[in-house]
Amino acid sequence: MATDHIRYDVLARDALRGVLRRVLADAAEHGLPGEHHFFITFLSTAEGVKLSPRLLAQYPEEMTVILQHQFWDLVVTEDRFEVGLSFGGIPERLVVPFNAIKSFFDPSVQFGLQFEPADAAAEAPTANLPAVAAPSGLPVAAPAAETRDEPAKPSEGAEVVRLDRFRKK
Questions:
Q1: In which element (H, E) is residue 29 found?
Q2: Is 70 a domain residue?
Q3: Is 3 part of a structural domain of the chain?
Q4: Strand runs (DSSP E) across 116-163, as ranges?
Q5: Greatest CA separation found in the chain?
Q6: With CB atoms 3.0 to 4.6 Å apart as the test, which of 33, 42, 66, 163 could cross-link to 100 if both were Cys?
Q7: 76: three-class secondary structure by DSSP
Q8: Which domain holds residue 39?
Q9: Is residue 149 in some structural domain?
């Protein structure tokens, strides 16, 4: 077989990251439409990821965040996204380079992407920079009105979910 000098695999991966970038940029500008929400799994110690020491201790390898009702200050740049989330009632600011993302899933439409991170996780967690502390008094978005017959349980903030428990064995 001939050598792939064009590197179609890299081109395809970058194009799919462009889809993710555009979806997040639209959400940052206009909010999440309809029932859309996102599960984003990323490597905790990848280069450029910024998590607080507390979150890094809880999720030393990878972390999944859900962008649905309670997130704020979503900022999307060419190479990363930044978002404010609350974990156990404590506001946190996360910075996640697109190269660190392993998977993206929107369960409202059953759309998902899986990535091989471009750069492997950093060898030493010391390469990880501390997260920027969220300013006090940040507004927390109220949950959207539920259309279910059952009342929704009050949220304690963002929930980190391991996707492994949803995978078929």
A1: helix 8-30
A2: yes
A3: no
A4: 129-130
A5: 60
A6: 42
A7: strand
A8: 8-143+155-163
A9: no
pLDDT digits (tens, 9 = 90+) for 76-98: 999 999 999 999 999 999 999 99
The domain spanning residue 66 has which CATH number? 2.30.30.220
Tokens of residue 169, six digits: 């064995």
Is 57 a member of any domain? Answer: yes
Task: Return the amino acid letter for 21.
Answer: R
Query: Taking a C-beta distance cutoff of 8 angstroms, is the pair 42, 101 a contact?
Result: yes
The pTM of this model reads 0.69
User: For tokens 């970058």, what's the residue?
Assistant: 14
* CB burial readout 125-161, b (16+ within 10 A) else e: eeebeebeebeeeeebeeeeeeeeeeeeeeeeebeee
How many domains would you assign to the chain?
Answer: 1
**Nearest alpha carbon to residue 31 among 168, 144, 156:** 144
